[in-house]
Amino acid sequence: MTVTGSCHCGKIAYELDEDLPAEGMACNCSICRRKGNLHHFTTPDKFALKGSRDDIATYEFNKHIIKHHHCKTCGCAPFAEGVGPGGKAMVEINLRCVDGIDLDTLKVTQFDGASM
């Protein structure tokens, strides 16, 4: 199955070569608690950007290992790219930007990023 998602205006769209996630993660770190993302992590080989990188603005902070992407037009943050635990490349999908997902049915795990 292919999962699709996008920012609000559609300029940043993607396809994910996976089944629709049934679980997500909420984090309370300084940026996640402000943005309110529900995270799903995957590998870059399963992710295909369908919009132009010219429409993406990027924010990095702290150790600069995650590129927090958002749309220059509408401000939504549908995905991020970076390095996960163990040094492997990863893509984070904001489940709030996934098409056709019922957020109320997700099993959400809380992550204490504020303590890191």
Descriptive notes:
- The protein is mostly beta strands and 116 residues long.
- The chain has a single domain (3-115), classed as Metal Binding Protein, Guanine Nucleotide Exchange Factor, Chain A.
- It is built from one helix and ten strands.
- It has one helix spanning 32-35, and strands spanning 3-6, 13-16, 23-27, 39-42, 47-49, 56-59, 66-71, 79-83, 89-94, 107-111.
- The strands form three sheets. Strands 4-9-8-7-6 form a five-stranded antiparallel β-sheet, with no helix packed on it. Strands 1-2-5 form a three-stranded antiparallel β-sheet, with no helix packed on it.
- Strand 6 (56-59) and strand 7 form a beta hairpin.
- The longest helix has 4 residues, at 32-35.
Would you kindly provide a brief summary of this structure?
By secondary structure, this protein is mainly beta. The chain is built from one helix and ten strands.
